Amino acid sequence: MSDPTLVRPSIVDWLLEKDNPSVRYITLREILDFPQDDPQVLQARSDIMQSGPVPKILSRQKPEGYWGKPEDFYERNKYKGTVWSFILLADLGADGRDERMQDAIDLLRSKRDDQGRWINERPYSGRMQVTIEPEGQPSKWVTLHALKVLKWVKQMNIARH
Known about the structure:
The chain has 161 residues and is mainly alpha-helical. It has helices at residues 9-15, 21-31, 39-48, 53-59, 82-91, 102-110, 140-155; strands spanning 118-119, 138-139.
């Protein structure tokens, strides 16, 4: 169980309310250290795909597997493009084995170059203090985030059907 000095019981109860299955799942797993096969964890995990932000994000996915515009894979449409949608879905505890994820996984893999890197296809369109990386070049940031997604995919044992 969790360290009682870390969080008040009333806060835990609040986090475990059923209105946000992602928060409930993450609290059970990461704050309370419940095992993955605990019935409450399994129920919360199932609920994630049915209510809350995850189904809303998935409903915005295009039939070809991307979010936003195909050219906004990473940089230009931050937090709305494909890589950022994957990161958010992983953070929310989405079940990556869900059929709706397969085309997006294929798209992500297809963007990798022969050396295993991803290109900064378009710069971020918002205001930034500095240019992080040049457009059209291999990007350490895009590669790092894409690899985080693929690690999540591997951890979920997601395979193309």
